C-alpha cells in the first residue's frame, strides 16, 4: 500500500457481503460495487430465494450483464440454506466454482428470510457436507424469538446457536457476518481457527442514537440494528487491529426511498456508492490508515483461500458531498444512500 499525505493506493478490495437485488434494481446498483471492488459476495435473499446452484448460475449471469464494460469484476455467490437443503445440492454448489458458501438466515430474522432455517437441528447434515466440500458458512447471527429484545439477538444467537455450530463441526469455516457488538468481536477473537467476521461501514461509524437523532431516521435502520457506542468502539478496534479474522463486508442493502420512508420501513442501508471511502474514514479517524488494505483487500481472500486481487485503487483526501438520492432503476424510484447530503473526507479517484 502506498500512502502520501493526501492519496492512498491499495490493492483492489473485495466486498464479502452485498445485496444486488435483481432486474432493474440490480442494473442500478452493480456499477457502484464493480468500480471499486474486484469481487463481491452477492447475497441470495431474493424472491424466490436462491436455493439451488442452477438458480445461482443464472443470477451470476444477470449480475455480469450489469457490469459496465471495461471493468473486471467477479461476482461470488452463496447458496440460500433451508431446512430442505440436501448434501447433494451442497456438493453441486461446491463443484460450480463460483459458489463460495451457503448462507444461514434464521427464518424470519430479516428481509426475505421466511424460507430460511427454522432450527439449526434441521441443517446439521448440510453443514457437515459443507465442511466436507469446503464451502464456507455465512451467518446472519440473530435469534428470532419475539421474546428476545431486538438489541440482544446477536448475543443470544452466539450462546444458543453459533457456539454449537463452531464446536460440533471443527472443519467448517464460518463467517459471522455484519457483527454489531463487543461480545461478537470477542467471540470471534477467542474462536477456533476457521471462524471470522465481516464488519459494515454503518456499524463502524454509527451507534444506535443515529436511529433517533431529532426524529425517527429510517435510513439508519438495518439488521442487525445499530448498537451502543461501546460496541461501535469495539468494532473499530477489531477492524483496525492486525487480527486477520476481521474483514470487509458492506451489507449494502438497497431499498427504494418509499419502502424505507414508510410506516413499516424496510431494513437496510445502501453504502455501495462510497463503500471504500466510508471505511477509509474509519481507519483514518482511528489513526490506522495503514491497516485499511489488509482489512479490505487481503484478509477476506486469505480466509477463503483465494488469490488476492491484482489491480489497485487510489483514494484522495478530498471533501465531496454525497447526493441526496440516486436513480434506482428506470422508473421514478429513488435510492437514498448512506450519508445522503453529507460530506465524505476521501474520494475514489482511480482504479487500475
Ligand atoms: O438491513 C438488512 N438488510 N439486513 C439484512 O440482513 C438484510 C438486508 C436486506 O436484504 O435488505
Ligand atoms: Zn445482508
What does this structure look like?
This protein has 352 residues and is of the alpha/beta class. The chain has one domain (14-310): TIM Barrel, CATH 3.20.20. The chain contains eleven helices and 14 strands. An eight-stranded parallel beta sheet has the order 3-4-5-6-7-8-9-10, sandwiched between helices. Strands 1-2-11-14 form a four-stranded antiparallel beta sheet, covered by helices on one side. A two-stranded antiparallel sheet has the order 12-13. The longest helix is centred in the middle third of the chain and has 16 residues, at 153-168. The protein is globular, with a radius of gyration of 19 Å. The mean pLDDT is 97. Bound molecules: (4S)-2,6-dioxohexahydropyrimidine-4-carboxylic acid and zinc ion. (4S)-2,6-dioxohexahydropyrimidine-4-carboxylic acid binds next to loops.
Question: Which structural traits does this protein have?
Answer:
TIM Barrel; binds (4S)-2,6-dioxohexahydropyrimidine-4-carboxylic acid; 4-stranded antiparallel β-sheet; 8-stranded parallel β-sheet; globular; about 350 residues; binds zinc ion; alpha/beta
Q: Would you spell out the secondary-structure blueprint of this structure?
A:
Blueprint: E1 2-3, E2 7-11, E3 14-18, H1 23-34, E4 39-42, H2 53-65, E5 74-80, H3 87-96, E6 99-104, H4 124-133, E7 136-139, H5 153-168, E8 174-176, H6 182-190, E9 195-199, H7 201-205, H8 229-240, E10 246-248, H9 257-260, H10 275-285, H11 292-304, E11 312-321, E12 326-327, E13 334-335, E14 343-351
Parallel strand pairs: 3-4, 4-5, 5-6, 6-7, 7-8, 8-9, 9-10
Antiparallel strand pairs: 1-2, 2-11, 11-14, 12-13
The chain binds (4S)-2,6-dioxohexahydropyrimidine-4-carboxylic acid and zinc ion.
(4S)-2,6-dioxohexahydropyrimidine-4-carboxylic acid binds at residues 19, 45, 110-111, 140, 222-223, 253, 267-268.
Amino acid at each position: 500500500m502506498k500512502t502520501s499525505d493526501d492519496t492512498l493506493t491499495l490493492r483492489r478490495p473485495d466486498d464479502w457481503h452485498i445485496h444486488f437485488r435483481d432486474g432493474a434494481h440490480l442494473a442500478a446498483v452493480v456499477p457502484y460495487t464493480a468500480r471499486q471492488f474486484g469481487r463481491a459476495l452477492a447475497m441470495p435473499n431474493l424472491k424466490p430465494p436462491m436455493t439451488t446452484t442452477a438458480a445461482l448460475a443464472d443470477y451470476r449471469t444477470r449480475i455480469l450483464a450489469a457490469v459496465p464494460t471495461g471493468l473486471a469484476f467477479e461476482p461470488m455467490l452463496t447458496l440460500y440454506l433451508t431446512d430442505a437443503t440436501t448434501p447433494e445440492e451442497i456438493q453441486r454448489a461446491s463443484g460450480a466454482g463460483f459458489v463460495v458458501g451457503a448462507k444461514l438466515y434464521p427464518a424470519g430474522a430479516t428481509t426475505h428470510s421466511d424460507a430460511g432455517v427454522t432450527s439449526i437441528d434441521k441443517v446439521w447434515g448440510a453443514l457437515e457436507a459443507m465442511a466436507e466440500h469446503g464451502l464456507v458458512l455465512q451467518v446472519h447471527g440473530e435469534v428470532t424469538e419475539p421474546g428476545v429484545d431486538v438489541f440482544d439477538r446477536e448475543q443470544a444467537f452466539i450462546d444458543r446457536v453459533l457456539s454449537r455450530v463452531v464446536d460440533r463441526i471443527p472443519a467448517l469455516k464460518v463467517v459471522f457476518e455484519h457483527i454489531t457488538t463487543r461480545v461478537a468481536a470477542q467471540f470471534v477473537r477467542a474462536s477456533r481457527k476457521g471462524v471470522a467476521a465481516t464488519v459494515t461501514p454503518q456499524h463502524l461509524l454509527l451507534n444506535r442514537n443515529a436511529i433517533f437523532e431529532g426524529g425517527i431516521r429510517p435510513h439508519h435502520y438495518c439488521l442487525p440494528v445499530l448498537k451502543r457506542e461501546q460496541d461501535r468502539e469495539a468494532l473499530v478496534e477489531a477492524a483496525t487491529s492486525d487480527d486477520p479474522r476481521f474483514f470487509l463486508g458492506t451489507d449494502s442493502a438497497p431499498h427504494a426511498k418509499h419502502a424505507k420512508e414508510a410506516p413499516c420501513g424496510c431494513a437496510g442501508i445502501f453504502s455501495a456508492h462510497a463503500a471504500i471511502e466510508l471505511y477509509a474514514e474509519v481507519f483514518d479517524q482511528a489513526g490506522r490508515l495503514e491497516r485499511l488494505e489488509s482489512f479490505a483487500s487481503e484478509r477476506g481472500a486469505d480466509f477463503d483461500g483465494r488469490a488476492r486481487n491484482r489491480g489497485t485503487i487510489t483514494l484522495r483526501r478530498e471533501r465531496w458531498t454525497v447526493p441526496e438520492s440516486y436513480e434506482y432503476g428506470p422508473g421514478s424510484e429513488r435510492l437514498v444512500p448512506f450519508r445522503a447530503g453529507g460530506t465524505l473526507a476521501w474520494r475514489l479517484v482511480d482504479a487500475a
